Amino acid sequence: MSDGQPTCRWTKAEDDLLRCGYPDYKQMQASLPHRSLNALRYRCRCLGMTSSRHIWTNREVRCLLELFRRGVSDRDLLASFPGMRLAQLKGKARHVGAERRYRPRPLDDPALDAIRARAFAAGVSLVDLDRRLKTGSYYQSCRRDVKLKPVARAAAFFGGEVTIEWPEEI
């Protein structure tokens, strides 16, 4: 009784009204006009109807950034942070500016697949690869036409070489 108002215990009927009305607080306030909005929110939290807000530690943020940098799957991401939802993880990653790296999908061309896989392993995005090699959007787009000039530039960039093999018989 700090401000002169009597404190009332919550009844089972009131708890049932909260369970039926959650998350519509306007409906709950109409059903329970003698309870304040803060009291309704607090009681919903006590009854376990709301999810608690996670306070991120620096260690958790570093771990999340590393997992996003490596491009792990959603399943592995959830396994690394038990008790958290995927939406929470992605929201925090977006908040701290983490970019998810996805393994490039195969194009059924050994040269392009090898270059894209090498870029992924080296931590170079396809956007950065195109920018560094001045190839427009050649590696970003899902092209199946192989052009020698971008392939040769990528081979030189990653320290490889382009070779042509001819069949023995003509």
Describe this entry's structure for a reader.
With 170 residues, the chain is mainly alpha-helical. The radius of gyration is 28 Å and the shape is rod-shaped. The longest helix has 13 residues, at 58-70. The chain has helices spanning 12-21, 25-31, 37-46, 58-70, 74-80, 86-96, 110-122, 126-133, 148-157. Helix 4 (58-70) crosses helix 6.
Could you provide a short overview of the structure?
The chain is mainly α and 170 residues long.
Cα gyration radius (Å): 28 Å
Name the poorly predicted regions: none
Mean pLDDT: 86
Order of helices and strands: HHHHHHHHH
Which overall shape is indicated by the principal axes computed on the Cα atoms? Answer: rod-shaped
Q: Cα distance, first to last residue? A: 99 Å
Largest sheet: none
Number of helices: 9
**Strand coverage percent:** under 5%
Number of strands: 0
What's the assembly state of these chains? single chain
Structural class determined from secondary elements: mainly alpha
Please estimate the helix content.
40-55%
